[in-house]
Amino acid sequence: MKGQTLAAKRPDETVAHAQRSIDFSQLASRWGTVAAAVIIFIAFALGTDRFVSLDNISNVLVQISVLMVISSGLTVAVASGEFDLSIGQAASLAGVLVAGMLVLAHQSVPVAIAVALLSGVAIGLINGLLVTVLRIPSLIATLAMGPIALGVNYAYTGGDSIYATMPDSFYAIAKGTVFGVVPMPIVIALVTVFVFYVLLNRTRLGRSVIATGANIQAARLSGIKVNRARVTALVLSAAGAALGGVMLTARLGTGQSGAGDAYLMDSLTAVFLGMTAFKPGRATIQGTLVGVVIIGMLDNGLNLIGAPFYLQNIVRGVVMVAAVGLAVLRGEIRFFR
User: Fold this and answer.
1) Rounded CA gap, 247 and 69, in Å?
2) Parallel, antiparallel, or unpaired for β 182-183 and 254-255?
3) CA torsion angle for 264, 269, 271, 276 (degrees, to 10)?
4) How confident is the model over 286-333, as pLDDT tens digits?
5) Which residue range forms the structural domain that includes residue 156?
6) Each residue of 310-332: b (16+ CB within 10 Å) or e?
7) Cβ atoms within 10 A of the Cβ of 157, count?
8) Is residue 16 domain-resident?
9) For the chain, how many structural domains are there in total?
10) Whole-prediction pTM value?
């Protein structure tokens, strides 16, 4: 009788153990990337006292502010199921346009910024039309748009950087503070992240974008205007890149033709890292933010400990491959479905 009682309990214990294992797996899947960010922070904090200083943390946040803005826009495009490989050149074009409007055309700061942002909207709109009307895959359409934007860039500048003194109100974008404490780039980045987060998670447009990215056929059958969602997502992606280009020009104090090009790979890395956190397999603003912070900590921490400059790229690539590769093996991320 006693043996029967024990035997009767064993299946329940097995089920409970299996449930605990599943719960642990889900917990690791959702929060593993965040845990990795915490581990990286602790490792660098132990490696050098300067890493955890208030000045350095503020410096890291300022350094990643442009990447945060550009990556947030790209997240919207990826959430819709599209890729945007033109964001680097879109940022560069916006950067030289805002400088040109201020220095060469002698326009006011608001007008110059508006022209730069409109250039991003135009690039995103063209990308969207190529994808939805001509049915060119976004990977190809945006890859082609990059050189086009670069050509416009060089046609405008002649390949030269735009060096000149700009209005102090424009420099305030990069060097100003709010309440004399919080650097303006951090404020702009956080506001941008908040706007994109609300857009994706609290609006009908955001739900349409996410539904389109999850299953375009099901979204179409449910009455969602999927082409409108895709075009809008690509417009927002390029507009975010243009805003990042404006911020970059304010930081550098000059309009440089290729200043924003490098942000393409960094933004893709941040978005893909973010797709392994919180809601694995989905591009989310909060996930991208974690990815951006990881990139910023790696770059800053490696600099502080005196690592060779090329090691930053190697480590960043290894982290991306490890995180995304693991998610792909678990079936959480699938590309080119």
Assistant:
1) 9
2) unpaired
3) 170
4) 999 999 999 999 999 999 998 888 888 888 788 878 777 766 776 656
5) 36-329
6) eebeebbeebbeebbebbeeeeb
7) 20
8) no
9) 1
10) 0.89
